[in-house]
Amino acid sequence: MAYPSRPVLEVLPQFRGTASVRQNATQRRRLIEFVAVEYQRGRSLRELAEQTGRTQTAVRRALDQAGVAPRGRGAQPVKST
Question: What are the Cα distances from residue 64, in Å, to 2, 13, 37, 46, 61?
Fold first, then answer.
């Protein structure tokens, strides 16, 4: 018996077509704000990468720029309130 695959999240409309080397300041600011808030709400790097159309490394960099402390490997997601 095979386990069902994990659903892949769609890129959110506000991030479609913005994953490029030459982002403008507004696009970059929106990305940083979004990943900082959602990561603190409990989203994983993988989920954020899928939702923004970026790599996990790009999401990690955005979190670093936002000053968000990373959770440990295999850490339980933060519970939403």
Answer: 38, 24, 13, 16, 5
Q: How high is the pLDDT of residue 49? A: 95
CB–CB of 5/38 below 8 Å?
A: no
Residue spans of the domains in the chain: they are 23-66
Provide the pLDDT for residue 8. Answer: 86
Whether 49 and 59 have beta carbons less than 8 Å apart is answered as yes
Say if CB 12 and CB 51 are below 8 A apart: yes
- Please state whether the predicted TM-score (pTM) of the whole model is above 0.85: no
DSSP category for residue 3: P
Q: Give me the residues of the chain with pLDDT under 50, please.
A: none
The single-letter code of the amino acid at 67 is: G
